[in-house]
Amino acid sequence: MTESRDGWERATVMVCRCEEVLSEEIVGAIASGAMTVNDVKRWTRAGMGVCQGVFCVPAIAVIVAEATGAAIANVAPMTARAPARPIRLEALAGLAEGAFDDARSLTTEEA
């Protein structure tokens, strides 16, 4: 349990389930100097998992707003990055053998 600025005790909870980041890790990052959602992301990897922050960024923004005293509307959202293209396992196996000449053959078939 941790105590917030308003005196309420808060349980430690899993904020980012993809990267298994706890609320106390986010609070610790803020205490160490993180001031934005992107800063928290860099310090903790929260928001970098499979869901790309869909589930955890709103909670991170609330924690940042509370810790910095900023209005939630003034907390900038996380910078989104495009996901990498998936690669078939047989393409990876072929790399070990040096079987591919064309880099496009490494990606999955395009829709």
Provide structural commentary:
The strands form two sheets. The protein has a two-stranded antiparallel sheet with strand order 1-2. With 111 residues, the chain is mainly alpha-helical. It is elongated and about 60 Å long. 34% of the residues lie in helices and 8% in strands. Helix 1 (23-31) crosses helix 2 (37-44) and helix 1 (23-31) packs across helix 3. The N and C termini lie far apart (49 Å). The protein has helices at residues 23-31, 37-44, 57-68, 89-97, and strands at 2-3, 9-10, 14-16, 21-22.
What features would you highlight for this structure?
111 residues; mainly alpha; Arc Repressor Mutant, subunit A; two-stranded antiparallel sheet; 4 helices; 4 strands; 8% strand
SSE string, helix = H, strand = E?
A: EEEEHHHH
Q: Roughly what fraction of the amino acids lie in strands?
A: 5-15%
Strand line-up in the sheet with most strands: 1-2
The assigned structural class equals mainly alpha
Which bin fits the share of residues in helices?
25-40%
* Uncertain stretches: none
> Which homologous superfamily in CATH is the superfamily of the largest domain?
BFD-like [2Fe-2S]-binding domain
Based on CA inertia axes, which overall geometry fits?
elongated
Gyration radius (Cα, Å) is 19 Å
Question: What's the short story on this structure?
Answer:
With 111 residues, this protein is mostly helical. It has four helices and four strands; from the N terminus they run E-E-E-E-H-H-H-H. The protein has helices at 23-31, 37-44, 57-68, 89-97; strands spanning 2-3, 9-10, 14-16, 21-22.
